[in-house]
Amino acid sequence: MTDSFSRQFDEDGYRYIKISPAQLRLQKLIKKSAQTVLRFLFTCFGFVIFIWERLQRLLRPHLQNRQPQKILIIRVDFIGDVVMTLPAVHTLRQVFPNAQIDFLTTPAPAQLIQRHKDISRVYVCNPNAWLGKPFSAAVWQEIARLRKILRTEQYDLALSVSGDWASILALLSGATKRYGYAKEAYPFFVTNSLPGGRYDVRQHESQYGLQLIAAAVPNAPKWQPSAAILTPQQTDRDRIQLLLAPFGVTETDMLIALHLGSGNGTAKRWPIPYWAALADKLRAAYPACAIALIGAEADTPLAERALAKMQNKRRVFSLTGATSLTDLIAISARCAILISADSGPSHIAAATGALTLALHGPTDPEIYGPQGPNTRYIWNKTWCAPCYDPSDTAECRFGAPICMKGITPEAVEAAAVEMLNAAKIF
Fold first, then answer.
1. Among 139, 188, 181, which Cα is nearest to 390's?
2. DSSP class of 270
3. Is the CB of residue 194 less than 8 Å from the CB of residue 160?
4. What pLDDT digit, counting tens, does each position of 158-187 carry?
5. Sheet holding 290-294, edge to edge
6. Separation of first and last alpha carbons in the chain
7. Residues ≥6 apart with Cβ < 8 Å to 420
8. Of 302, 308, 294, nearest to 338 (Cα)?
9. How far apart are CA 365 and CA 284, in angstroms?
10. What is the mean pLDDT of the chain?
């Protein structure tokens, strides 16, 4: 329990509000103004590119109608969002079994998908780091290097799945055809734009990638949610068993995983005392089970506080900060059930086919919830929910999200037990 944690968060794990509503409004106004100026400048640049590409098409018409042999998917945001794009990857692989399907993403999700069977190659970039140093020579050298690498591949098709940055990267790739949403791409940066943008219609996040596929590949089959689209390798399974062994967990023991954190805003978190109460209830319901607290290194203080509040710590232990994202695939596949707030691990677990129970408050589970036949969510839809704005992290404007606090440990335990009983896991 570090002093720095206490200075930033309250006892439930929520961030202290450090700025006034007036300051917050000013920040949003400055941000929106900067975005307007950038959009104007990029539109002018995009128009020049548009004219140039029109001339190129007249000179090379044969490139417009050929079947894609090299495809680039661009998604430069969060882990869970990248996982929700995998159905689109799988659909593309079904249509083009021999095509080169590459993925461009940020460093964290890259670890997760680098060994995915449907992806040929993973490229990594970090646009947020570029924004932090816009006048750095090193940043511009990195952009030039990435552009050179992508252009060397000569992509036939690029899919811009995540906003303005993805459209910039699609243009950098030089792909012959570039698909994206009109509201989420700088004008003229994509060659084929779908009207509107994500969240104009209340539908699951995975559908936006699938709709781009449907537009680019009219004969693509309809996606059917699969029990497992992420599969751990045996080496990952072996490593997890080595991590579990010191806690007395054998390969046949029942394992329950609890993920306490949320990297995309503290308002998504469930209160720390509730996690402690849930662990106690699950220990009572399944005395022989082992309970692992999982998460990134930044989640360690949350796990420490939860452990300190538990009444029964027998066979309850923390693996926070001790696992990679590929380890998380193996943990998810190994556990009887994973319980998490709306965060990347809930999507990873669902993608492995594990029983997954997600807790939602500020985010709409019909849009952001884990998908699959073994998933379930609890949503406490209060008068102010959903309030999450994808342009920023999820922080409660009141400082203490009543939506998450309204989900009781008793309700979560009952849902978990019902799922385990239905799956005949005891």
1. 181
2. P
3. no
4. 999 987 888 889 988 989 899 999 888 777
5. 316-318, 290-294, 255-259, 337-341, 355-360, 375-379
6. 34
7. 286, 336, 337, 355, 426
8. 294
9. 29
10. 86
**pLDDT score, position 266:** 86
Residue with tokens 């590459």: 102
Q: Which two tokens stand for residue 31?
A: 């941000």
pTM beyond 0.85, yes or no: yes
Show the tokens assigned to 269.
């978190």
Q: Cis link prior to 386 (omega < 30° from 0)?
A: yes
Q: The domain at 33-216 falls in which architecture?
A: 3-Layer(aba) Sandwich (3.40)
**Which residues have C-beta within 8 Å of that of residue 6, sequence separation ≥ 6?**
none
Q: What beta strand segments (E) does 173-250 contain?
A: 177-181, 192-194
DSSP run (H or E) holding 5: helix 3-8
In the sheet where 177-181 sits, what is the strand order? 121-124, 100-105, 70-74, 157-160, 177-181, 192-194
Using the predicted structure, report yes or no on whether residue 64 has a pLDDT greater than 60. Answer: no
Tell whether the model's pLDDT for residue 105 goes beyond 60: yes
Section 126-150 average pLDDT: 84
| Separation in Å, CA 315 to CA 254, 285, 292, 339 | 11, 14, 8, 17
| 293 sits in which H/E element | strand 290-294
CATH number given to 229-422 = 3.40.50.2000
Classify strands 337-341 and 121-124 as parallel, antiparallel or unpaired: unpaired
CA proximity to 116, closest of 233, 237, 235, 225: 233
Rounded Cα gap, residues 263 and 128, in angstroms? 15
SS3 378: strand
Residues of the chain with CATH 3.40.50.2000: 33-216, 229-422
DSSP for residue 14: P
| Residue-wise burial string across 136-172, b where 16 or more C-beta atoms lie within 10 A, e elsewhere | eeebeeebeebeeebeebebbbbbbbbbbbbbbbbbb
How many angstroms separate the CA atoms of 136 and 331, rounded? Answer: 40
pLDDT tens for each residue of 286-313: 999 999 999 999 899 999 999 999 998 8
> Which residues touch 269 (CB under 8 Å, ≥6 apart)?
12, 13, 14, 260, 261, 262, 302, 341, 404
Between CA 19 and CA 378 the distance in angstroms is 31
pLDDT band at 1 (very low <50, low <70, confident <90, very high): very low
